[in-house]
Amino acid sequence: MIPFLDLKAINARYKDEIKARIDGVLDSGWYLLGEQNRKFESNFAAYCGTRYCIGCANGLDALRLIIKAYGFGKGDEIIAPANTYIASILAITDNGCSPVLVEPDLDTYNINPDLIEAKITDKTKAILVVHLYGQAVKMDKIWALAKKYNLKIIEDSAQAHGAYYNDKRVGSLGDASGFSFYPGKNLGALGDGGAVTTNDEELAQKIRALANYGSHKKYENIYQGLNSRLDEIQAAVLDVKLKYLDSDNAKRKEIAQYYLQNIKNPLISLPQTYSENSHVWHLFVVRVKDRARFQNYLNDNGIQTIIHYPIPPHKQECYKELTHLSFKITEQIHSEIISIPISPVMSDNEIQKVVEVVNEFK
Ligand SMILES: *Cc1c(COP(=O)(O)O)cnc(C)c1O
Question: Is the CB of 159 under 6 A from ligand 1?
């Protein structure tokens, strides 16, 4: 079986280095908010091209913390793509804000910038962009809208560590960005982890306090905060893996190029990119009308696949208030998409086999 993602093999490549750093944390006797966090935060901020990075417990918290730090809440609207992972929307509703959903572009799967302006009202506070499946959202029109209507741009960069829009990396394209280091992401920890990146000093300080009970100084609480910290072991692991992120992403890109050039089956629609560095291929998502049969066929031929995602947020049971809405493109995407294996540890034989099997689907 060609696994969808072999996390053991991914991490085995750096095993000695990771073990040495974990030993260091163990021996230091200091397990939260210490040297490892400072190191990783400074390296990750430099990587993204931002002045600040604040570690936190996971990607959902990173987004929750940004919205909370801006003080957005009940009565405020945040524009977001209808086609995203549920966490993007949970971060909005957890703060009491209303998500205003916008259809994606069918070929890139990202929010369609041309449809945003019609959704802006006097309650709109922010546009949350999601760089879905690893591809940076085209930002020009969104920057112009944010300026025109005085809105914040919040990035959900959980799937796109390292992707570029023109010469800037995701994480530096808006006012603040949330990252996830869930083990399966392009930069993944050995457990949960997350971070916020921003150039806004005041926001960075507020988020740092909010993530630590609302406190800058022990036992003095200026905000009603959360407990959302990146632990020292995960920060150390991430600091090791960050050094290899660009080469891992390059390998993903090589596989994606091979798929794009060699998968030739009229039943399969391939994903599109608009520039060479815009996509870090967290997922390689194709569309097939007869998806269930395709998935069974791949499984029978030894290829594991996953659907990201089978049900859009507005059709989830937890969002009854949204289920009356209809987003035709989003619904089409959710009914046709399927992710085929892509990862920095796939062998040439595996990559070739995927292409052959996919091309033989009738
Ligand atoms: C993974 C993911 C998140 C949430 O990250 P966690 O660390 O699992 O909380 C948010 N948004 C998107 C688009 C994701 O893929």
Answer: yes
